[in-house]
Specification:
By secondary structure, the chain is an alpha+beta fold. The chain has two helices and six strands, in the order ββαββββα. It has helices at residues 17-20, 57-63, and strands spanning 5-7, 11-15, 26-29, 33-34, 39-41, 47-48. The strands form two sheets. It has a three-stranded antiparallel beta sheet, with no helix packed on it. A three-stranded antiparallel beta sheet has the order 3-2-5, with no helix packed on it. The protein starts with a strand and ends with a helix.
């Protein structure tokens, strides 16, 4: 996922290990936040980005 946003699909599994270190996939449902750097597993999804690029999760991590 290139930018933070909101999931527009019913549900999807995401690999969050690059951001959180968690080894198990995370289930995200429609309307929940998806963060830049997450990797969707097994399907294509639609995500609506809602904030400025400089405020994105990945930008904050890189600036840290």
């Amino acid at each position: 996922v290139p930018l933070d946003g909101v999931l527009l699909e019913a549900e999807a599994q995401f690999d969050t290990s690059a951001l959180t270190g968690e080894s198990m996939p995370r289930s995200i449902r429609e309307g929940e936040e998806v963060l830049a750097g997450m990797i969707v597993q097994g399907q294509a999804v639609r995500i609506q980005s809602e904030s400025a690029v400089r405020a994105k999760c990945l930008a904050r991590i890189l600036a840290w």
